[in-house]
# Entry
Amino acid sequence: MLSQPTHDELAGQNLVQSLRMHIFRNISPNTLGLAPKTYKLRRLG
# Structure
């Protein structure tokens, strides 16, 4: 059985979840179209 998270742990989890949602909703869609035009993609290895 898992222990209950503390108030600080819950706050940290909520912060990470909010940051991830912000990135996925606001940053990723806007930058996906720019990447091929802005950066030369090269194969590593």
Notes: The radius of gyration is 18 Å. The first helix runs from residue 7 to 32. The chain has a mean pLDDT of 78.
